[in-house]
Amino acid sequence: MTIQKVDFVELSRLIGELSGMVDFKKDLPTNLFVGNGFKFWFFERPLLDFVDAFSELVSESLSGFGGDVFIKFSGEEFLADSCFAINGDTVDADASWVSDNFEDFFGGRVGYPVVLFNGAFDWVAFESLREEFGVIAVKVSSFQNGFFEYLESNFISCDGLSKMSSSSSVEGLIAKAFEFSYCRKK
After folding, report:
1. 3-state secondary structure 128-180
2. What pLDDT score was predicted for residue 121?
């Protein structure tokens, strides 16, 4: 296993960069991504409980973009042991370790929101305690065909969300709120 804890210096840099993309004062289903130029996909949370999906997302990011993939717990809080980096050597083992420790939030030391992202901030995934869905935002300027195809095949697109929102079920109402925030033409 090669997962690494992120030290405070690197954590400070990462949170600074994330704060330029994510408005941590907002919560889902509101669009909390800063600026335009994103394409969105959605997932049922918690993503970390779906080890295969989590592991595949990390693997696809590593093969498409390179660099590390980071998992940050407790949003923008500066907490020891709240951010980890996966570099690709043992993705499946690292994903399992994160998932196992996520079950009790690393002994109660961390919490929501959970933010996943690659080191170049080409994409950011955000999940909140309060919503059934999480959001993956990918910069359109970082278009990487294989990664987009992977997301399109394995996550819920805006078109899929639109279909879900036509239902009067609780899931349909939640989908409608996300569709309004993320998928309507501005």
Report:
1. CCCCCEEEEEEEHHHCCHHHHHHHHHHCECHHHHHHHHCCCCHHHHHHHHHHH
2. 97
